[in-house]
């Protein structure tokens, strides 16, 4: 239940993420959504979101670490 509520909030943020000027905030949105999907057991969606975070910042260590867990 809590994961679902958190995902809803991050999905709203994701809809507005392109208006964020700070790239690190966009990376964090993708990373945290990926982590929520990973915790729910949706490895494919988690992988996609970690890869999106890394496409914005290829050096984002948390995304690299979590990506390794879902591949």
Note the main attributes of this structure.
71 residues, mainly alpha, 4 helices, flat
Characterization of the model:
There is one protein chain. Helices cover 80% and strands 0% of the residues. With 71 residues, the protein is mainly α. α1 packs antiparallel against α2 and α2 (23-40) packs parallel to α4. The longest helix is centred in the middle third of the chain and has 18 residues, at 23-40.
**Main sheet record:** none
Please state the average pLDDT score.
88
Helix content: over 70%
Tell me the number of strands.
0
Task: List low-pLDDT spans.
Answer: none
Indicate the topology.
Elements lengths: L1 H15 L6 H18 L2 H14 L4 H10 L1
Helix pairs in contact: 1-2, 2-3, 2-4, 3-4
In short:
Helices cover 80% and strands 0% of the residues. It is an all-alpha fold.
